[in-house]
Amino acid sequence: MTAPLLEVQDLKVHYPVRTGWLSRRKLFVRAVDGVSFALGRGETLGLVGESGCGKSTLGNAILRIVEPTAGSIRFKGEDVTAVDRGGLHRLRRHMQMIFQDPYSSLNPKLPVGEAIGEPLRVRGLLKGRALAERVAELLTLVGLGPEHRGRYPHEFSGGQRQRLVIARALALSPDLIVCDEPVSALDVSIRSQILNLLVALQQRLGMAYVFISHDLSVIRHISDRVVVMYLGHVVEVADRDVLFARPLHPYTQALISAIPLPDPQAQRAKRRIILKGELPSPTEPLTGCPFHTRCPLAEDRCRHVKPALERKASGAYVACHLVPPAAAAAAA
User: Fold this and answer.
1) What is the pTM of this model?
2) Secondary structure in 3-state letters for the chain
């Protein structure tokens, strides 16, 4: 087996919170609290969960846009959390990010040709005619043309601006791209075009994606494997087809039950899982399973003992006391 491109081990990102002038208690928001996963070359790993579960913070931490509190991030065997500023500058040539809002990702005063070529120019990799040719190549690669290079971001539609952002992310030929909700700000009619473009580019260029989204339909379309997050924790990791055919964690089951079906009769007959209960405070240390306050199946041990992320009979990894591990299922 080849070594993974990216390894995240027990990653934590905690933000300090102001509690008032007289309070001596120091509180932290545990945005990411012990996340581990691996990503292979040319693979797409989907990160899914409700808003506020820590998906975007995790994506930012992978590139050290935000500093991790603890844990390790290894990219191509090198510990990203241990390198200095110069080492991080070198590594970021091979790791890029596509943000949610394409308009705010582009300088409105800069022609798009200059914006796309800026990473190459700043690093001193190309200049003059060679730089112009590379910009033209990137524009063509994302479905635009060299004639667009002199235009400004406000002259493009939302879908075209996202294509420009993708072209800029590809400028340095990265091995990894973190896609943070790259289609959520686009019209539904444009989303499939951008998703298909990302798939085609991956097949052609071979880079890996960490794809962040709260939309399970998008995750199902583009991902090879899926990581389900809840309150900064990983509750389930599985191959895409396994996860959508047989979700094991109660939270994953609730998420998938919310996906609308195109057939009205099937939609009416579908059993919808409505979660009740209150979300725990993100500043308070959790006891037991992080989902136990909303889980309809929670037992007493769920409230006191945190479940480990264990391999189950389906091949998925699930953090739930109620799903037997693979060895127990085989023995039964």
Assistant:
1) 0.91
2) CCCCCEEEEEEEEEEEECCCCCCCCCEEEEEEEEEEEEECCCCEEEEECCCCCCHHHHHHHHCCCCCCCEEEEEECCEEHHHCCHHHHHHHCCCEEEECCCCCCCCCCCCCHHHHHHHHHHHCCCCCHHHHHHHHHHHHHHCCCCHHHCCCCHHHCCHHHHHHHHHHHHHCCCCCEEEEECCCCCCCHHHHHHHHHHHHHHHHHHCCEEEEEECCHHHHHHHCCEEEEEECCEEEEEEEHHHHHHCCCCHHHHHHHHCCCCCCHHHHHHCCCCCCCCCCCCCCCCCCCCCCCCCCCCCCHHHHHCCCCCEECCCCCEECCCCCCCHHHHHHC
